[in-house]
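Tokens for Right handed beta helix domain-containing protein. Go.
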Amino acid sequence: MRNSISVNPRQRVLVSAVGLAVASLAIPAQADTVTSGTTTVPAPGNPNTTWTVTNNSTLILQSGASSNWISLSGSPPSTGRPQLIMDGATVISTAPPAASPVGTTPPPAISVRNASATISNSTISSPNNIGIEFVTQLVSGLQPSTGTITNSTVSGFQYGVAVSAGATVTITNSTLSAGTGTNSGVNGGLINFDSNVTVNGDTVLPVKRLRRSSPDKAVVSSERRNTDAQAYALQRRV
């Protein structure tokens, strides 16, 4: 026999308030780690999942998949480079690292440290940090970072794409942009410090310049390489 429960108006109000409070809570990020083999993320993925990829392992984001930030990091002794392969996927960095203090800034959308990333037909964004960073730690046993970005859109707070310390990156038919942030006075869609960067095709780098109300767009329609220790030519110093 079904039991009936009577709820008076005040109880109904309290129950509704509790329900609204629970619904308003932010969904916590889920931290996943890949330490060996290959992990494939099919569509739709999970925009609240962060990924840490180490050792000689591979993370694949298939078309239509989404995630929060992704960190790839090689470590000595040499175990090969971690790899990221994504085609038609979306990565947006909104979650701070696990166990970090309240108010910690989320990391770059994709961090490639002594690792490799192959990105095509994808969207990468970091509203509070770098869109994609390629870094090589000069430690014995570690391999330099490498990457390709093709037909993709990358945006970051201070840099769209930052390449440093001997990494090698090729960018083709992509749009790279930066917000209003700076690091050591530098802001730009593509920043190169001591690395090899090749830009091919119709790659667009919107560049905000001082005393102008709207960003200029520099379209790179022929191959360009910059191996200087300075930041990439398309940048802003403030």
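The chain has a mean pLDDT of 79.
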